[in-house]
Amino acid sequence: MSPAKVVMFVGSLRKESFNRKMAAALSALNVAPLQFEFAEIGRLPLYNQDLEGEEAPAEWVALRQQVKKADAVLFITPEYNRSVPGVLKNAIDVASRPYGQNTLEGKPGAVIGVSPGAMGAFGAVHHLRQMMVFLNVPMMQQPEAYMGGATQMFDAKGGFAQENTREFMKKFVEAFAKWIERIRG
Q: Domain 4-184, what fold?
């Protein structure tokens, strides 16, 4: 079977985002038969049902097509006010609407919380999981990835600064590849 295509939704738009660094470092690990690509969500117009139809914004159409072509989705998120950032929520709304046309439905998913704080975006991860239940996205349960201490997580080249972090993320990606295969059948 060919490598599974995984669309990564990064919940931070900041240029030096720890979450984007996590996504890039995971892609560089290349430890499982997965093909990672970024969903560029920063310029998505806010979801408004009045814009649906033939005149839907081109950015919405492009995101929906990208997700449709993917085999799985990976969310990498910080925590804002004990939830996911608005930009990530908007991207999820765009990908899952209009009702009955949810491009996320049935796709295997996983989530990583990345934060400078000790809790590793725990609240955001669990809020996102709750949304995915409603959207019928089967989420990988183990290993959980609450990555705190992000200020010390990456080296100058963007890789993982600590060997134990690198090994944990390898195991995470390997488990996700197995999860995708299990769900894909």
A: Rossmann fold (3.40.50)
